[in-house]
Amino acid sequence: MKVLFITLAFSFIDFPKRGEGRYMFGRNQMKSQDIEKNNKELSNKMNAQDSKQYITYLYHSSICQYCSKVTSMLENNDNVEIIKFKENNKIEDFGKFNKPIVILLKNINKENSLERSIFFDELKRKGKKVQVPALEVNNIILFESDEIIKFYKKLLEKVSNDKKSSLENKGNIKNDKTKF
């Protein structure tokens, strides 16, 4: 009788099957190949884009150590402008940005509390889960702090290379002037 009861009890629990990529009780887990695929797709889009400015959204929580890891890496960089995006803000409210990489921080909590902001539901809708930090660029969501840092490092490298080639071209133009 006990065996029958235990068997019935375990039949209601949704144990993951091998290779299914899910945690117990049906919580989704993003597979590492999906994360890598998103990072490559995002990097390819950014490399193909010939832009002087890149605007990114970073969903974060003020109480998340992984979020701090990402923002600490980006702070005090001459090419990065970090702006706290509030619930009622629109991108047009900020006018013209001064740096090539703009990061609009969207806190999923209201200030330093555990109360949820509208960005919590926005991330859940767009990313199909709530996990911070989460980077949004061109409607692609990238999770995992290490992958986000890799992405920003590539973007910083691209911006630095673009600046160098721009300066070299300006130098060539100045040296190429001939008097008539």
CATH topology: Glutaredoxin
- What's the CATH superfamily, by name? Glutaredoxin
Q: Which spans have pLDDT < 50 for at least 5 consecutive residues?
A: 4-33, 172-180
- Tally the structural domains: 1
Query: Which CATH architecture is right?
Result: 3-Layer(aba) Sandwich
User: How many beta-strand elements?
Assistant: 5
- Structural class by helix and strand composition: alpha/beta
Give the structure's gist in a few sentences:
It contains five helices and five strands; from the N terminus they run ααβαββαββα. It has 180 residues and is of the alpha/beta class. The longest helix is centred in the last third of the chain and has 31 residues, at 145-175.
What does the secondary structure layout of this molecule look like, with pairings?
Blueprint: H1 2-11, H2 32-48, E1 54-60, H3 65-74, E2 80-85, E3 101-107, H4 118-127, E4 134-137, E5 140-143, H5 145-175
Parallel strand pairs: 1-3, 2-3
Antiparallel strand pairs: 1-4, 4-5
Helix pairs in contact: 2-5, 3-5
Would you write up a description of this structure?
The protein is of the alpha/beta class. The chain has a single domain (35-164), classed as Glutaredoxin. Helices cover 43% and strands 16% of the residues. It contains 5 helices and 5 strands; from the N terminus they run ααβαββαββα. Helix 2 (32-48) packs parallel to helix 5 (145-175) and helix 3 runs parallel beside helix 5 (145-175). Residues 4-33 and 172-180 have low confidence and may be disordered.
